[in-house]
Design a protein that fits this description.
The chain is elongated and about 90 Å long. Helix content is 29%, strand content 22%. It contains eleven helices and 15 strands. It has a seven-stranded mixed sheet, covered by helices on one side. Strands 12, 13, 14 and 15 form a four-stranded mixed sheet that branches. It has 429 residues and is an alpha/beta fold.
Length: 429
């Protein structure tokens, strides 16, 4: 089905509850084959609710037998009706999911069954037979229920793919599930994972340390929640660097005060139920990049600009809102695009946009605006402990400011931060 660009999932029958079917809302259902016998007490059964969803159903081998058994037919075990290996099905009546079959006579299929259907369920008719399977193909066309005794998914049923094509067409699929579509879906899902939780907890907060502590706590809570869904999860691997430790922790008599809490250091609870693995904890960023080269990682990966663990929250001084974050993302995309277009990306240690907690008056198209101001930040550094601002040309800054104001609704003023570290930090919060 996935080769036909149709999204599908496989679920054990015991997990497919009425609530699951309601939430998943399938457009079609396939009951697979299996090694059990429907005549055995306690053998797998299809959820009764599946038959009442009004969607097409295809039963294969055991799936056919379970449909017949549950819908009023009869399945028996007995000598002389088993089929294993190559068989040939003879058509009885034309059927929509068999379009393209039987063009040259009987159709080769692959059988693997010991039990057999001895009586079909009410509403079903026979559409194909084989020497040891008088009900090789059955269907209730009024409900779009189809059942076959053979295995259309295997190589030895040469025309099996055509049967699936016909089934998904009947079910209304357009075959538009591609890796490109999956990529977009996955990215969108990742971007909204737990988004509401973080935004709701950060609502109304403006103090940077409170933000960082809150994000650190939620980071662990969320990680722990999802780790609990993975059986046997024991470790939390983090990319903690030495500057994170230095800036977050001030030991009595140590060389520094706590400058700012990093979510992966200061925000960790004492008991989190997982063991920490931090192989980079004693390294500075330049040393990490040297290690990456030792490991043979691509230079484009090694040279990627750092991104803060707390995310865009610390590039949004003051109160955080979804609207401000959306504006910030758009402005940052334009800024980084400009840097790449001018061939400056690898000369810069880190570059980003911060949206400021002030609005300024502007004029656009002879009209008054009252929108946010933003600050561009770009620094050069080696280890992240000290940094200086990157000396962009005025032409670059003017061109970038014009693009941001023209392309990003909500910003009408652009500034450039020329503060070094120290006295400033690289990030704004």
């Amino acid at each position: 089905l996935r080769e036909l660009n149709v999204y599908c999932e496989i679920h054990p029958y015991q997990n497919v509850t009425d609530a699951f079917l309601t939430e998943f809302a399938p457009k079609a259902i396939i009951f697979s084959g299996g090694p059990d016998s429907v005549t055995r007490e306690g053998s797998p059964r299809a959820p009764e609710a599946a038959f009442n969803l009004g969607v097409p159903i295809l039963g294969i081998c055991y799936g056919q037998q379970v449909m017949m058994h549950q819908l009023g037919g009869r399945v028996e075990s007995g000598h002389g009706t088993a089929e294993f290996g190559r068989a040939y099905v003879t058509p009885k009546v034309s059927l929509n999911i068999l379009d393209g079959w039987f063009a040259e006579g009987d159709e080769q299929v692959w059988m693997s069954h010991g039990d057999h259907v001895s009586d079909i369920a009410p509403g079903f008719e026979v559409y194909g037979t084989s020497p040891n399977a008088p009900y090789a193909i059955t269907a209730d066309t009024s409900r779009n229920f189809f059942a076959v005794q053979f295995h259309p998914e295997v190589h030895h049923t040469p025309n099996g793919a055509r049967l699936y094509e016909n089934f998904i067409k009947l079910a209304g699929f357009s075959g538009d599930w591609t890796m490109g579509a999956y990529r977009e879906q996955a990215i969108a899902a990742i971007r909204e994972d737990e988004q509401e939780l973080f935004l709701s907890e950060l609502e109304g907060m403006s103090d940077p340390e409170t933000k960082r502590k809150t994000i650190g706590r939620l980071f662990i809570d969320v990680f722990q929640k999802h780790a609990n869904d993975i059986e046997g999860a024991e470790f939390l691997a983090q990319g903690t660097l030495y500057p994170d430790v230095i800036e977050s922790v001030s030991f009595s008599g140590g060389p520094s005060v706590t400058i700012k809490s990093h979510h992966n250091v200061g925000g960790l609870p004492e008991k989190m139920g997982l063991k920490l693995v931090e192989p980079l904890r004693e390294l500075f960023k330049d040393e990490v990049r040297a290690l990456g080269r030792e490991l043979g990682l691509p230079e484009s990966f090694i040279g990627r600009h750092p991104f803060p663990g707390p995310g865009l929250a610390i590039r949004c001084p003051g109160e955080i809102t979804r609207a401000k974050l959306d504006i910030l993302r758009q402005a940052d995309a334009v800024y980084i695009d400009q840097i790449r277009k001018h061939g400056l990306y690898d000369e810069i240690w880190q570059a980003f946009v911060a949206i400021l907690p002030v609005r300024t008056v502007g004029v656009m198209g002879d009209g008054r605006t009252y929108d946010y101001a933003c600050a561009l930040r770009a620094v050069t550094s080696v280890d992240g402990m000290t940094a200086d601002y990157y000396p962009f040309s005025h032409e670059f800054l003017g061109e970038t400011a014009t693009r941001i104001i023209n392309e990003v609704k909500g910003i009408n003023r652009v500034t450039y931060d020329i503060t070094s570290k120290p006295p400033g930090t690289i990030e704004w919060e």
